[in-house]
Design goal:
Length: 298
């Protein structure tokens, strides 16, 4: 089976963009050239690589397998280039990191120090909900993944690098100076505003509530920390949220951290990748930088 790097890159771009014209733009060729190269790749495989349904490209099983192979080959080639640059005393290349949305409150600061030290490195940072990050992890699309609740379905290289305390917040006026520590059941009549099912914060909260036999009667589910903060500040209820999402300015956000027994709930931040995956030199350097620099934000 004969196939060129250009054809493999086109297949990979097609998988990422879902469009022949977009794949052509991504690989800097004309659309007729891209279509011709993709036909030649399909002829080399001996099976169709994609089909068009409703004006959108869908890879066939053969196309998906070829895209996975092309991605692995591309990653290996980039790692080789980085190693050669390292032998030449150069540090440059591309780093791809996917993080859950709550990590956006501190990861950019950690990246800032890394970029200052290695200015020639291009960084792609994907910020998604947990399901989105897990999906990218399943397809091995990035070098590293940062989340608080890594999935158990994969065999992962997993390192804890920072605590992720989860706190109960209420409207700023709800807190009383002489109130003292509350029991969670004191909030049983309150509306609990929670992250969407599947998020790391929600999973940790549900597990904690289940251990205590606590089942809040009233719930409101929201898909972002910002929406939850605004809902709490507006008096819609109380919430369990990562302390990182408050950015050290709870009162300025119109909320207060409530002194509730059993909280802060101790969760942790993990940096993971598939076990057996050969990290590129740049990814290894960033992981080490992350583990070292994270102590500054604890």
């Amino acid at each position: 089976m004969n196939m060129t790097f250009r054809q493999l890159r086109l297949v990979l771009a097609l998988a990422d963009t879902g469009s022949v014209s977009a794949a052509a733009r991504a690989t800097h060729v004309t659309q007729p050239t891209a279509s011709m190269q993709l036909r030649e790749a399909a002829n080399a495989v001996g099976m169709p690589l994609y089909e068009v349904i409703g004006k959108r490209v869908h890879l066939t099983e053969a196309g998906k397998e070829l895209a996975r192979t092309a991605r692995a080959m591309s990653a290996e080639w980039e790692a080789f280039e980085q190693k050669i640059d390292g032998l030449k005393g150069l540090t440059r290349g591309r780093l791809k990191v996917a993080v859950v949305s709550t990590a956006k409150y501190f990861v950019p600061r950690l990246l800032g120090g890394f970029c200052a030290k290695y200015p020639a490195i291009d960084i792609s940072l994907e910020v998604l909900n947990r399901d989105g990050v897990v999906s990218r992890l399943a397809d091995n699309l990035d070098d590293l993944y940062i989340m608080s609740m890594p999935p158990s379905a994969f065999d992962l290289e997993d390192q804890v690098f920072m605590p992720n305390p989860l706190v109960v917040i209420g409207p700023r006026k709800k807190r009383s100076a002489n109130q003292g520590t509350m029991d969670l059941r004191d909030l049983a009549s309150s509306r609990f505003i929670l992250r969407e099912p599947g998020s790391g914060t929600r999973m940790a909260t549900d597990a904690h509530f289940q251990r205590l036999g606590f089942n809040p009667e009233l719930k409101l589910e929201l898909g972002s920390n910002e929406a939850i903060r605004e809902a709490v500040a507006g008096g819609l209820g109380v919430a369990v949220i990562s302390q990182h999402a408050l950015q050290g300015h709870a009162s300025g956000l119109g909320v207060s951290i409530l002194d509730v027994k059993g909280f802060p709930l101790q969760s942790q931040w993990h940096v993971v990748h598939h076990k057996g995956k050969q990290l590129s030199p740049i990814a290894t350097i960033f992981r080490d930088h992350l583990l070292k620099s994270s102590t500054l934000w604890r």
